[in-house]
Automatic annotation (TrEMBL):
PROSITE patterns referenced in this protein's UniProt entry, alphabetically: RIBONUCLEASE_PH
InterPro entries recorded: ExoRNase_PH_dom1, ExoRNase_PH_dom2, ExoRNase_PH_dom2_sf, PNPase/RNase_PH_dom_sf, Ribosomal_Su5_D2-typ_SF, RNase_PH, RNase_PH_bac-type, RNase_PH_CS
Source superkingdom: Bacteria
Domain Exoribonuclease phosphorolytic: 11-140, 159-223
A GO biological-process term: rRNA catabolic process
Protein family: Belongs to the RNase PH family.
Stored Pfam families: RNase_PH, RNase_PH_C
GO molecular function: 3'-5'-RNA exonuclease activity; tRNA binding; tRNA nucleotidyltransferase activity
Gene3D superfamilies: GHMP Kinase, N-terminal domain
Species classification: Bacteria, Pseudomonadati, Pseudomonadota, Alphaproteobacteria, Rhodobacterales
Reactions catalysed, as given in the entry: tRNA(n+1) + phosphate = tRNA(n) + a ribonucleoside 5'-diphosphate
Name of the featured protein: Ribonuclease PH
Length: 237
């Protein structure tokens, strides 16, 4: 039995509320169980300098966690004067993942920055950030299309992410913190709406895993991402 009482393949309850901030071109609040992330997308009229003259746009991300997102207060990274290695790794992952679903030539020489701020953490914050970040990105791109600043939709497909792992010897989908902290194997699976893999992060935390177990986790991830994509579609409809 999982600590939450969920079946092995059950994901947590998901809700995506859009247009939650006044000024951002795209925004949403995604809740995956007790993990809550505010995602906003900002359109900038210029691309990074390394893309000048290429005709290509850019999608990037920043990630942060509020001091009391967890059960004890974490010091703000701004107060420490630098981002942690974990934060840098996660925001690079979010950016890479979102770019996988974008035709950068159709976006033109502009940049969209997706900010993901964790309000409350209970495992899977990077996955929730990617899933919600895509919604914010989609809404921002909709504004570009409506304004006529771009004529072709640069969004190629949905992108969503879910964590899966081996907990108490069993493959489980969408780990919460209680499971993540005890998992023998932990993985993050980023996929498109068509089911193609964008990135897989998998590691043995307490025990090695077999090829068969990896395939079981991939099957769980595929089914979980399909549910997340359905939630994305409903949110932006």
């Amino acid at each position: 039995m999982r600590p939450s009482g969920r079946n092995l393949g059950d994901i947590r309850s998901i809700s995506i509320e859009t247009a939650v901030t006044k000024h951002a071109e795209g925004s949403c609040l995604i809740k995956m169980g007790d993990t809550h992330v505010l995602c906003t997308a900002t359109i900038e009229d210029r691309a990074p300098s390394f893309l000048k003259g290429t005709g290509l746009g850019w999608v990037t991300a920043e990630y942060g966690m509020l001091p009391r997102a967890t059960n004890s207060r974490n010091r703000r990274e701004a107060a420490a004067g630098k981002q942690s290695g974990r934060t840098q790794e996660i925001q690079r992952l979010i950016g890479r993942s979102l770019r996988a679903g974008v035709d950068r030539s159709a976006l033109g020489e502009r940049q969209i920055v997706v900010d993901c701020d964790v309000l409350q953490a209970d495992g899977g914050t990077r996955c929730a950030s990617i899933t919600g970040g895509w919604v914010a990105l989609r809404l921002a791109v909709n504004k570009l299309l409506k304004s006529g600043l771009i004529v072709s939709d640069p969004i190629l497909d949905h992108v969503a992410a879910i964590s899966c792992g081996i907990y108490a010897g069993q493959p489980v989908a969408d780990l919460d913190y209680a499971e993540d902290s005890e998992a023998g194997v932990d993985g993050n699976f980023i996929m498109t709406g068509a089911g193609r893999l964008v990135e897989v992060q998998m590691s043995a935390e307490g025990a090695t895993f077999s090829r068969e177990q990896m395939n079981q986790l991939l099957d769980l991830a595929e089914a979980g991402v399909a549910q997340l994509v359905a939630a994305q579609k409903a949110a932006v409809a």
